[in-house]
Amino acid sequence: MSFQTSVAKLSAPVGDLVLAVTRNGQELLGESESDQAEVINWIERSSQEDLTKESNLKDLDTLLIPKTYIASNYLTAADVALYGSLHPVVSKLPTSQHFTHPSVTRYFDHIQSYPPVRASADILGAFEFVSFDLENTPKVERKTEPLKKKGKSAAATPVSGSGVATPTANTEVETAPVAQKDQKKEKKEKKKGGGDEGNKKAGGSKATPPAADEGEPVPSMIDLRVGHIVDVIKHPDADGLYVEQIDLGEETGPRTVVSGLVNYIPIDQMRDKYLVAVCNLKPANMRGVKSFAMVLCATSKEGKDGGIELIQPPANSKPGDRVYFEGEDYEDTTPLAQLNPKKKIFEAIQPGFITLDSREAAWVNPSTKSVHRIRTKDGVCIAPTLVGASLS
């Protein structure tokens, strides 16, 4: 089926909107053959009334949980078609039901606010802007959240110079995600004498055993991975905090992460961003929302007022890609399953984090002054503009 044929099946105002938005943007039809096929498939589905019936929004909400866009990882004509088809239903929902299907609401608001979509919708006059009280979004239960194991509870504190909230030693304990549990199990088996010949670094070389937390802290103890923000809202009970859903390539789904970046990075610059996440910190309760990781940020050498930026992985990175430190002592070492907050491992390593004159993220060994860039198999991670920035 061709693009024109699929659009012809849409109701008149929706089809007109799709054609208006795509008139000057051929990339919205899909950048590859597979993307184009998926775009046409979703336009076809958007023309079917069952997809956007209020009674079926629950299924669509589940489908949209890990997605920013419906057909690919960028805006396409399929998103315009789905937004237009959803508009009659969403616009008539009472305010009390706006967050009954939070992923649909988040997706709808993102697409309706996209400049080319908004401009064409305003010209056509058939798709009025729907206002949502995003500032007071109710807390959404994280379906992939692991079972809780209650312990002591205390307020969390930000790592110095970051604006990013991280756990303290006495935060409420929650079991780590499944992937971390498996690592802990493997570690115990190795202590008993069990081996894992299949444990290898990406690229084929055999990985060394997991780092032990005895002795001097080393950066390879820290579990860094590429993450993708698939959803972000402001914390319902804290003006300075964002609550993000970050895809880290785990079968359990995105992790909930709380970051103190509201006053430094606009929410529009957080949406759909790829970043580097610290994944083996102890989960922390942040003003009523459990945080399961930390985003790695660069803070200007002039301090927070000089700017804070997300550290960016190389282009074409995928969620879950391993991020490591260059150097034979660190490259092939498996990080700890979870950092022991009482041993202050991250706090001991963090002062050596910096961005070089090239804006490349690195760790400088305080003893030897050797420089170890932070990278994936595809390249080095960077800060967009900051040089000489601290990382945390």
From TrEMBL:
<dbReference type="Pfam" id="PF21972">
    <property type="entry name" value="Arc1p_N_like"/>
</dbReference>
<dbReference type="Pfam" id="PF01588">
    <property type="entry name" value="tRNA_bind"/>
</dbReference>
<feature type="region of interest" description="Disordered">
    <location>
        <begin position="142"/>
        <end position="218"/>
    </location>
</feature>
<dbReference type="GO" id="GO:0000049">
    <property type="term" value="F:tRNA binding"/>
</dbReference>
<dbReference type="InterPro" id="IPR053836">
    <property type="entry name" value="Arc1-like_N"/>
</dbReference>
<keyword id="KW-0694">RNA-binding</keyword>
<feature type="domain" description="TRNA-binding">
    <location>
        <begin position="218"/>
        <end position="324"/>
    </location>
</feature>
<dbReference type="InterPro" id="IPR051270">
    <property type="entry name" value="Tyrosine-tRNA_ligase_regulator"/>
</dbReference>
<keyword id="KW-0820">tRNA-binding</keyword>
<dbReference type="InterPro" id="IPR002547">
    <property type="entry name" value="tRNA-bd_dom"/>
</dbReference>
<protein>
    <submittedName>
        <fullName>Predicted protein</fullName>
    </submittedName>
</protein>
<dbReference type="InterPro" id="IPR036282">
    <property type="entry name" value="Glutathione-S-Trfase_C_sf"/>
</dbReference>
<dbReference type="InterPro" id="IPR012340">
    <property type="entry name" value="NA-bd_OB-fold"/>
</dbReference>
<feature type="compositionally biased region" description="Basic and acidic residues">
    <location>
        <begin position="181"/>
        <end position="200"/>
    </location>
</feature>
<dbReference type="GO" id="GO:0017102">
    <property type="term" value="C:methionyl glutamyl tRNA synthetase complex"/>
</dbReference>
<feature type="compositionally biased region" description="Polar residues">
    <location>
        <begin position="159"/>
        <end position="173"/>
    </location>
</feature>
